[in-house]
Specification:
- This protein is mostly helical.
- It is built from seven helices and no strands.
- The protein is rod-shaped.
- The termini are far apart.
Amino acid sequence: MRFDLKQSSRVALAVGLAAVFALPQNLVAETASHLVSASELQQAVVKASTERQQNRSEVQRFLSSEQAQKALKSAHMNPEQVKTAVSTLNDAELAQLATRAHKAQADFAAGTLSDRDLIIIIVAIAALILIIVAVR
């Protein structure tokens, strides 16, 4: 047997090319671009937690208002049960209800809503909360 440098280099080149083409090129690129640092992850968690707390406070404040208490009692709904159910909503549902509650409060304060309109909105929001919780 004789050692053929030319043949050996061809085999080595073929093995090297096969290895390069066997690995997906986007695998190498994706690992570098999709890494999230621990501080970025922590900031995102803190931001989400803060937003959730603000939304929950907004809905709780809306449901604790005098008009809301009257509306819930007139609709034969337990205000405490509705308030408790708020904390079981997911982030998207809570954000949506907080937006509606804020808009209703702003409209009522501006005089564009009557007491009757506000009662309807409050009962609808409370019913929506209870339905979401009951479906789970």
